[in-house]
Write a structure and sequence with these properties.
The chain is α+β, with helices and mostly antiparallel strands. It folds into 3 domains: about 45-125 and about 200-285 and about 590-750, Beta Barrel (Thrombin, subunit H); about 285-400 and about 555-575, no CATH class; about 410-550, no CATH class. A hairpin with a 5-residue loop joins strand 19 and strand 20 (about 680-685). Helix 1 (about 5-15) packs across helix 12. Bound molecules: arginine (ARG). The site of arginine (ARG) has 11 residues, from helix 9 and helix 11.
């Protein structure tokens, strides 16, 4: 590998420290101070107040974080409000899990699409929440000065927690808002986010997967792309407009702001702004961190995920019911699997190790140059390096063991849900005091009721035969790849008993276990007994797997607090070293914006990728034999008739386009807007050549893949006939420039 010279590194550091407009996931409250001038130059027309305001409706009020569960944390996707009645656009792959839950062989909304033709037909989604940021605040000064530098580890966390708990309480306005506090820049800064969380979110529309997931896993993470990756939801509130759980009387949300939709054809270099909730990046990962990932982190995950996907795929292609039940689990795992493969490839192709190493070398030089700096930052990189080295081998084993043991068959995870019941029952058995015994019995009854409630959730998307094969494949992986000292006793016995035939082991475990069918679980819960639990092979295996994982993870030296401190100091040092550079914090599931422009790219030598794809490209990819590339007949007909309505241009229908915005997972579904804050498309993916973008931004190669809003509306209107939804939108089209006067025209002609 080539090593950059100090001089070159110095040039990179001090010569190129201006932030490129395209790089960065910026924090809304600093827009005016850090980015506004840049953005205005590039094409932004809105004022800062129109974008982020606490007192008046502004653009940020139309940006929604989607989460599983009622807290505004860990947003899996972004959505945007597009009508005065709380209508929301997001990606098809963001709605996928809920579309799947409403699907059955009789009503297969994944295959056929779903369109509510009136509010009554919109489908509630238990657990799904939509969060809108009311305000955010930099609270670093309430925290850092009150935390002594000598405080480390749990004491530090506890001191911080005490302060944040108080701040949260003071800011929730008696529970009206939900407050989240997060650390930024590796613990150097703290910000508070105050949200309104809506928990009645209903499914309104989704195209068939042959549009919404066109190209499937083959095209996933890649350009050129032809996917109509959108779905539609609506937020409902209590009749008084406040957030409320699902109730029939609820009404559509009246938003503080919604995005108009702009149908002007997209052009190269158009200003492009994206708002959303990127989940996580590690832009300050060190070279030793990269080594750790490539050697110890990705390989076991790729292996474990790959095995499971193989088994799932086989069962899904043989059985329609299994195909629907496993669609969402499969898509999620396949997406991650391909992401990790791509990240590994990107790290290698872009030579990120050496890029980081060169930067670290110059950092170290800067540190050594000054005694005070040397004392503060001198060993920071060494501490990080040592911790990566120390945990390396142990971590690989741990990941593989988790993925192939407890994380293998769903049966095992489910069986371990019964451990609390076991300890309650043991407590009851040992208790002598009559009164206390009664209390313990109540505890058991409560737990049994809870477990009964969980039965539907476990089995609604479960297929025992599929899971049995997953068990066989992953148990074999565990037994052959995980070191002997981590082998559960029962597993060793079973392998001996069945002479290494994993299918027979699986058959035995599933047959004997009380947790492999709904009927067996119900029967067990009618008469739960400790003896039965102790003899249940799935339950026993699950606890033994858990014990060995816990023991192994205890043995890994992660560097703990020391490394946390080192990471914090490294980031502090980087910022001190480059006082004129504008820094953006790593993504952490908080509201960010990124800006750039519509742009093509050159993926490799002699190859040019244009920035738009068209419906003709969908037709060219059509393959009725391949599930991923089927094109619905209606779409072919619209194409043949060039029946694009107002959404096509010059006989062409644009499907997707590219921009150089900086986004990551969690941004899926984010609005891509023009300088007026009007919706031009919905972001849904990144590209194969820059998969390592979470670790380093690659300006020449990194692109955001967007489904064009014209295609979205074309599918809603022309394909699905859901005109009532189009009528809800506020559509903007720039009128054509006025015709020149006759004399002028004559001049032009002449
Ligand atoms: N790669 C996209 C993301 O992580 C998901 C695309 C979903 N499509 C698919 N074919 N699985 O956001």
């Amino acid at each position: 590998m080539k090593k950059l010279s100090y001089l070159l590194a110095f040039i990179i550091l001090f010569g190129g420290i201006k932030v490129k407009a395209d790089e960065g996931m910026w924090l809304p409250i600093f827009l005016e101070r850090l980015n506004y001038v840049d953005m205005e130059k590039m094409g932004l027309k809105l004022t800062p107040e129109e974008i982020y305001s606490v007192n008046n409706g502004s653009l940020k009020d139309a940006i929604v974080g989607l989460a599983d569960g009622p807290t505004p944390q860990g947003f899996f996707c972004t959505a945007e409000i597009v009508s005065s009645e709380g209508l929301m656009f997001t990606n098809h792959h963001c709605g996928f899990g809920n579309i799947q839950k409403h699907s059955s062989v009789e009503h297969d909304y994944l295959a056929d699409g779903f369109w509510a033709m009136s509010h009554d037909e919109e489908l509630p989604n238990e657990g799904l929440s939509a969060s809108i940021l009311y305000r955010m605040e930099d609270i670093t000064d309430s925290i850092i000065p009150n935390i002594s530098d000598t405080l480390k580890g749990q004491d530090r966390s506890a001191a911080i927690k005490e302060i944040t708990t108080r701040i949260k309480k003071n800011s929730s306005e008696d529970g009206k808002y939900n407050v989240v506090i997060k650390s930024f820049f590796s613990g150097n800064e703290y910000y508070m986010f105050v949200y309104e969380v809506f928990t009645d979110v209903r499914l309104v529309g989704a195209p068939p997967s042959s549009i919404g997931k066109f190209g499937g896993d083959t095209d996933n993470w890649m350009w050129p792309r032809h996917t109509g990756d959108f779905s539609i939801f609506r937020i409902y509130t209590a009749p008084d407009g406040s957030p409320a759980d699902y109730a029939e009387e609820n009404i559509p949300l009246v938003p503080k702001h919604f995005l108009p939709v702009n149908l002007d054809p997209i052009k190269a270099n158009d200003f492009s702004m994206i708002w959303g909730f990127p989940g996580g990046t590690e832009r300050n990962l060190t070279s030793s961190g990269i080594e750790f990932k490539v050697n110890n982190f990705y390989p076991p995950i790729i292996e474990g995920f790959g095995k499971k996907l193989e088994v799932w795929k086989e069962h899904m292609s043989n059985n329609q019911e299994v195909k629907i039940k496993y669609a969402s689990k499969y898509a999620g795992t396949a997406n991650g699997w391909k992401l990790f493969i791509g990240q590994m490839k990107g790290i290698k192709d872009l030579d990120l190790y050496n890029e980081k190493k060169a930067f670290e070398d110059s950092f170290q030089t800067w540190v050594e140059d000054d005694q005070a700096r040397k004392e503060k930052y001198g060993d920071v990189l060494e501490v990080i390096y040592q911790s990566n080295k120390d945990k390396a081998d142990g971590y690989s084993t741990l990941i593989l063991a988790s993925l192939s043991g407890m994380g293998g068959a769903e049966l095992l995870g489910y069986a371990s849900d019964f451990s609390a019941l076991k300890s309650f029952m043991e407590g009851y058995k040992e208790e002598k005091d009559k009164k206390k015994k009664e209390k313990k019995l109540e505890q058991i009854d409560k737990e049994v009721a809870k477990l009964k409630e969980g039965i539907t959730g476990q089995f609604e998307n479960y297929d025992m035969e599929t899971d049995e094969d997953v068990f066989a494949a992953l148990t074999e992986l565990y037994f052959t790849k995980v070191p002997k000292e981590m082998h559960p006793e029962l597993l060793v016995d079973l392998v001996k008993k069945f002479k290494g035939n994993y299918n027979e082991i699986a058959a035995y475990v599933f047959e004997k276990s009380n947790f492999s069918t709904e009927a067996k679980v119900l029967a067990f819960l009618e008469k739960p007994s400790l003896k039965t639990l102790d003899k249940d092979p799935a339950f026993v295996l699950a606890s033994e797997f858990r014990t060995s994982i816990m023991a192994a993870s205890g043995n890994i030296n992660r560097g703990g607090d020391e490394v946390k401190t080192a990471n914090r100091l490294f980031v502090e040092g980087i910022r001190e070293m480059q006082p004129d550079k504008k820094f953006y914090p790593d993504a952490n599931s908080t509201l960010r914006f990124s800006y750039g422009k519509v742009l093509d790219y050159y993926p490799k030598d002699a190859v040019h990728f244009d920035y738009v794809t068209h419906l003709s490209g969908v037709i060219a990819k059509e393959d009725p034999e391949n599930d991923e590339f089927i094109v619905p007949a209606k779409l072919v007909e619209l194409y043949n008739n060039k029946d694009y309505g107002r959404y096509g241009q010059d006989d062409k229908m644009i499907v997707c386009y590219l921009s150089n915005n900086d986004i990551t997972g969690g941004n899926s579904g984010s609005p891509v807007m023009n300088g007026n804050g009007e919706l031009k498309g919905i972001a849904f993916d990144g590209n194969w050549e820059a998969m390592s973008s979470d670790i380093a931004f690659a300006p020449k190669l990194q692109r955001t893949i967007v489904v064009d809003i014209n295609y979205v509306l074309f599918i809603i209107d022309k394909f699905a006939g859901a005109k009532h939804l189009i009528d809800e939108l506020s559509i903007v089209v720039t009128p054509p420039a006025p015709m020149p006067l006759v004399e002028e025209a004559a001049v032009i002609i002449n």
